[in-house]
Write a structure and sequence with these properties.
There is one protein chain. With about 425 residues, this protein is mainly alpha-helical. The protein is built from 15 helices and no strands. It has one domain. Helix content is about 80%, strand content about 0%. Helix 2 packs antiparallel against helix 10 and helix 7 runs antiparallel to helix 8.
């Protein structure tokens, strides 16, 4: 859970520290990151194919299969990271065609151009992280995430506000902090894998492994649908940023704050989903399908208990949490800041409700991925988010309808549809495996 929180905490820190400047800067970071998050979703979603394959090989004690999966995965993730870096640069001009506030776009452009470079170290790190996760060595990626976030806070403080003689760079300081911290995160985990005796022993003779078309195909067959699943969800949520931008700077800033807060609790569920993926992958390798189902449902129950806790926090603190991001002493932007707080407090009530659905869909999706069942879940996520959720957000999210709240009702609708359909898929599949075993 802490390892998964690492990615989101970088964004959380950037938003909090930039939010002190003014709502326009916060909206610019939000818009810039919305494009980077699409690239992250593709890469991180693809890399999740590594974990169940490593977990399966580990439970089978098949060192050759484990090493082959690792080597082929690193190569594919490195190629994908460079492709995504190039693609986002190519598509950055889309911002100009989205009817976003001009002053927000002017600030977001240079921020995006620098932060997008961090995708390269981030996605290579993800390949290493998923390998460690597959071996149940999740503590090392957690250490890397903690170090990266501490470094990001320090660099942000020095460069955003120009402290201790450093230049005051505003949101560009946040971009530099993100790039450096993600690079250090990769370096740290690489050194762990290189010098940790347990890990290095399992990779001894790695370079003697031959590259095989079948292994590339196996990873791609799981990785591409897994990537699409995450893209469908992330772009669905990113669309909320874009739709809120049509309502103005303040709704866009409020939307970003609410998304940032809800993503914290989502990453807790995502951390549990990694556990589900690893443990299900282990049980699949052992062909122990009763324990596979029991473990999945146990993790789901734990996730729902935590989701209920966070839902209560959002409901009880909906007027207080937005103040973390806002400088209430800023007289110049006081009215704008208070409007942002007012909108955010309403969105957090909706976020509280969809915590349950979000937790169900992410944990069950991971369990299915651990079973290497990815094609049908990909279709389910597309239907839930883009045939049901997004049209609802688009229709209800205009000024004539419900505005920002309408956008978030659409998010809730999409997540709930995904949760119900994915659980039905999981229930049918696991009962069939138990019956036929």
């Amino acid at each position: 859970m802490l390892g998964m929180l690492g990615h989101t905490l970088v964004s959380l820190v950037d938003n909090i520290m930039v939010g002190v400047l003014d709502p326009i800067n916060l909206a610019a970071v939000s818009l810039g990151n919305s494009f980077v998050f699409v690239g992250m979703a593709i890469g991180i979603g693809f890399s999740t194919a590594i974990t169940p394959l490593i977990a399966e090989a580990d439970s089978e004690k098949n060192i050759n299969k484990l090493q082959s999966t690792f080597l082929h995965s690193i190569i594919l993730c490195a190629i994908l990271s460079i492709f995504l870096f190039s693609s986002i640069f190519f598509f950055r001009d889309i911002m100009l065609l989205m009817n976003q506030p001009v002053e927000v776009v002017e600030l977001a452009m240079p921020y995006l151009e620098l932060v997008v470079i961090s995708l390269i170290p981030l996605l290579i790190f993800q390949a290493l992280k998923q390998f460690c996760d597959g071996l149940s060595l999740t503590i090392y990626p957690m250490y890397a995430a903690i170090i990266a976030n501490v470094l990001n806070v320090i660099i942000n403080y020095l460069l955003i506000f120009g402290k201790f003689g450093f230049p005051q760079m505003g949101i560009m300081g946040a971009a530099i902090g993100t790039l450096i911290s993600r690079s250090v995160m990769l370096l740290f985990l690489f050194l762990i894998i290189r010098y940790n005796s347990k890990i290095s022993k399992s990779l001894k003779g790695l370079l003697s492994i031959k590259l095989e078309k079948n292994m590339f195909s196996k990873i791609l067959n799981i990785g591409i649908p897994s990537s699409l699943q995450m893209v469908f969800e992330v772009v669905f949520f990113t669309s909320a940023v874009w739709l809120s931008g049509l309502l103005g700077e303040n709704p866009q800033s409020a939307n970003q704050i609410a998304l940032n807060l809800s993503s914290m609790s989502f990453m807790i569920a995502s951390g549990l989903s990694v556990s589900a993926m690893v443990r299900v992958g282990n049980q699949k390798g052992l062909k122990n399908y009763r324990d596979l189902r029991r473990i999945s449902l146990s993790i789901l129950l734990l996730g729902l208990l935590l989701a209920t806790f966070f839902a209560l926090c959002f409901i009880l603190l909906n007027n207080i949490l937005p103040l973390i991001y806002i400088d209430t002493n800023n007289i110049l932007n006081y009215e704008d800041n208070m409007e942002v707080v007012k909108i955010t407090s309403k969105l957090l009530i909706i976020a509280a409700v969809y915590q349950i659905s979000d937790t169900i869909q992410v944990i069950i999706l991971a369990a299915l991925r651990g079973m290497q069942d990815v094609k049908i879940p990909t279709i389910i996520t597309f239907i839930a988010y883009w045939l049901i959720g997004f049209p609802t957000s688009y229709f209800l999210g205009t000024e004539k309808m419900l505005g920002s709240e309408g956008i978030w009702i659409g998010l809730f609708t999409g997540l709930t549809t995904a949760a119900v359909l994915l659980y039905i898929r999981f229930d049918i599949l696991t009962k069939k495996l138990i019956l036929n075993n």
